[in-house]
Amino acid sequence: MPAAARRNEQSRRAILDATLALLAETDYAKVTIEAIAARAGVGKQTIYRWWRRKGEVVLEALAEQAMPMALPDSGDLEADLRQVVRATVAEFGDPRLSATTRALTVEMLTDDDLAEQVRDRLLRPQLHAVRDRLAAAREQGQIRTGADLDLAVELMFGPVFHRWQLRNGPLDAEYADALADHVLAALRP
Amino acid sequence: MPAAARRNEQSRRAILDATLALLAETDYAKVTIEAIAARAGVGKQTIYRWWRRKGEVVLEALAEQAMPMALPDSGDLEADLRQVVRATVAEFGDPRLSATTRALTVEMLTDDDLAEQVRDRLLRPQLHAVRDRLAAAREQGQIRTGADLDLAVELMFGPVFHRWQLRNGPLDAEYADALADHVLAALRP
Amino acid sequence: MPAAARRNEQSRRAILDATLALLAETDYAKVTIEAIAARAGVGKQTIYRWWRRKGEVVLEALAEQAMPMALPDSGDLEADLRQVVRATVAEFGDPRLSATTRALTVEMLTDDDLAEQVRDRLLRPQLHAVRDRLAAAREQGQIRTGADLDLAVELMFGPVFHRWQLRNGPLDAEYADALADHVLAALRP
Amino acid sequence: MPAAARRNEQSRRAILDATLALLAETDYAKVTIEAIAARAGVGKQTIYRWWRRKGEVVLEALAEQAMPMALPDSGDLEADLRQVVRATVAEFGDPRLSATTRALTVEMLTDDDLAEQVRDRLLRPQLHAVRDRLAAAREQGQIRTGADLDLAVELMFGPVFHRWQLRNGPLDAEYADALADHVLAALRP
DNA sequence: GCATAATCGAGACGGTACGTCTTGTCTTAAC
DNA sequence: GTTAAGACAAGACGTACCGTCTCGATTATGC
């Protein structure tokens, strides 16, 4: 891709920054290609040249600032899981972060290609990290042998996601701890 | 509600039918108010008069055809849960039904009012039915006293929802059974 | 055309007025559909709904304000022709009027349909009026029988048009009179 | 002009040839700088380096292939004029040649500088040649002393130009002869 | 004959305008 | 008085060109 070599990094940054700024400030409906281009001081074509759709711009913008969740291994499985679940619940509960997640979720529902990218680039690494922590716990006999670890990860995150999207209850520390407890109960020998 | 008294039932039906037809046939992006009106042979104003946004039309259309899931109580908790989870997994796994769910999910993410309505009119009844079944089980000592039944319901549906939306694995009977098993493990005395 | 019955006359006027204003104020390159719409406080679609191209808007705007040249018949053929030619030369010589003529000419060269319309709606009536004056003169023996009156009209206007477009000499009263004289010389018995 | 010394003649030829080819093949609206560059296999900058605007490229392309009209002097003024007018009418009547003339005319209406260049480089030589022929005729008493020869030239070409641009009648030999006759009538002693 | 400086093809860039689409409101005529 | 039809203002869509700019890679002198 020799063309990409000519890509103007300044423009790229300006576009991603403008996208993040708009996501943070306004309704997602106002995060249009035109608004991004205007905010970034960039021609629309420069966006269309490098991304096929708005969702991909949003993804790339979010992917760059995503901090890989720190996954503790203190030896105390219960404490570690509580910490992970609390962090997740806090993220979904924060209206600010929640807005960008919402944006990305809308795009994923609309575009299968994008859904794959989001899954593989943003989510899988996080889910795999948790699964690895559970695998270590299983080695040490803290989890029953028959437990399906991928499913266990879904047991941890699925309910949070569900509650967030359906606004079906509070997203607070108490909820996080109760959830962690029930997941542990499902996994214990 | 005097206006409603004058409401033309034929138009209402035509609009909802057109909405369902478009949802089934085309991309959700093509399900526009204009397309619905044209398909239903109805003026756009007739839609705007009775619904505030497209999402509400979609919701009403889907609500009418939603069959309340039959919740068995055979006395065998494991069997009953497996059946419920299998039905849920099958519904999300069916591309046809999945399309309308996707449509509604997009609208919920965009419109808080609508999210409430969907939650209260479509989902809560189903979730409550499951919770009631679990409550009965708890009465009979099949579930430990400390279990949080609302959370238990989320443990059942959250992972399915998560996997569906993230396209993060197969949605089949085997998965349904494994999920039901883990949920039961979390609840048993 | 029942649809046309619904046409909003206010919008139509605003569009034509905005077009005339822009033609008078700016380079023709800046007379864009977007500029007209913005100036008229009108959606672009409202322009595209009623006109196929910019040239047609310009034509309609000009056609409405075109005053049918007063064609005198004083009995004195030479005086009458001088007056007509002087008026024509003055019009082409005036930078202001010249700008709109230039605009229309560009459009005619680009669009055959429009050229026909301009010819039939704006120009032919004027040319015919002159021909009729010449016909009256021929009746009275002031013009030789063999003269081709359509050609005579072209002899009067063609040189002015030619000189204007090629900027090939001054467009003043002296020139007008000389031209009128030569045309008369070509027609006299 | 040391820079010009480095000019790549191959590129220049490719650009002018591409321009002529596009003029001949497509609508003038499609004769863009980008299209010329692509067709010529040349960078856009190479065009902008040597010409200020598209019109100048078109002019240069046309100037190179313009054959200077042969102006006969058989001694028979009427025959000579008829021949010139016939040739002119034929050129404007030919759709092929007409297309390039149209292109150039559009540019002239848009760009005063270009208009001067076209007038001086392409048209004046032709008009002067005709005027010189008329001057010779006047020497021999075939034209009245008071005739304005520049105006006479305009009397010959103006009507053709007018009729062509307004599509106001046929451009054929019969017309040419009638025009020549009337012009002669205007000039005769 | 070698350095060096302008030219070259290519095409990214910030812009402007295009012509189309949909939104939600407003107007009209028919029933 | 509600309807179907659709005009309307607004504004985003994705595309096409504009004229400028930056890249390496040829040239073609002129030292």
TrEMBL record, chains A, B, C, D:
Q: What highest taxon heads this organism's lineage?
A: Bacteria
Q: Does the keyword tRNA-binding apply?
A: no
Q: Which GO terms describe its molecular function?
A: DNA-binding transcription factor activity; transcription cis-regulatory region binding
List residues of the HTH tetR-type domain: 9-69
Q: Which residues bind DNA?
A: 32-51
Instruction: For this UniProt record, give its keywords in alphabetical order, as a comma-separated list.
Output: DNA-binding, Transcription, Transcription regulation
Entry-linked InterPro entries: Homeodomain-like_sf, HTH-type_TetR-like_transc_reg, HTH_TetR, Tet_transcr_reg_TetR-rel_C_sf, TetR_C
Can you name this protein? TetR family transcriptional regulator
Say which species the protein is native to. Answer: Paractinoplanes brasiliensis
